[in-house]
Amino acid sequence: MAHVPEGLRYTTSHEWISEQGGTYTIGLTDYAQDALGDLVFVNLPQEGDRVTAGETLCDVESVKAVSDVFSPVTGTVSEVNEALADSPEMINETPYEAWIARIEGVSEVEDLLDAAAYVAFCEKE
Amino acid sequence: MRLLFERSVPGRRATLIPELDVPAVKFDESLLRATTPRLPELSEVDLSRHYTELARQTHGVNDGFYPLGSCTMKYNPHVNEEIAALPGFADIHPLQPVETTQGCLAVMWETQRDLQEILGMDAMTLQPAAGAHGEYTGLLLIRRYLRERKETGRTKIIVPDTAHGTNPASAVMAGFTVVSVASNAQGGVDLDALRAAVGPDTAGLMLTNPNTLGLFDPNIIELCRIVHEAGGLCYYDGANLNAIMGQARPGDMGFDCTHVNLHKTFSTPHGGGGPGSGPVGCKGFLAKYLPGPVVARQGDMYAFSQPEASMGRVRGFYGNFLVVVRALAYLKTLGAKGVSEASTNAVLNANYVLRRLQDSYFVPFGDSCMHEFVIDVGPLRDETGVSAMDVAKRLLDFGIHPPTMYFPLIVHEALMIEPTETEDKTTLDEFVTAMLQILDEAHEDGERLHGAPFTCAIGRPNEVEAARHPKLRHEFSGEGKVR
Amino acid sequence: MGSYVPNTEEQRAEMVAACGLSSVDELFAVIPPEARVKHLDLPAGLSEMEVRAQMQALADENVRFPSVFRGAGAYRHYVPAIVTSVTSKEEFVTAYTPYQAEISQGVLQSIFEYQTQICELTDMDSSNASVYDGATAAAEAVLMCKDRTRTGVVLSGTTNPQVITVVKTYCESRGVHVTVVPPAADLSTDTDALATATGNDTAAVYVQSPNYYGVIEDVETIVATTHDHGAKAVMGFNPIALGMLRTPGEMGVDIAVGEGQPLGLPLSFGGPYLGIMCARRELMRKLPGRMVGETTDATGNRCYVLTLQAREQHIRREKASSNICSNEALCAMTASVYLAAMGPSGIRQVAESSAAHAHYLAEQLADVPGFSLRSARPFFHEFLTECPTRADKLVSALAGRDILAGLPVDGGILWCCTEMNTRCQIDALVAALGEVSAR
Question: I want to staple C272 with a disulfide (CB 3.0 to 4.6 A). Which of A29, A97, B320, C30 is the partner?
Answer without folding.
Answer: B320
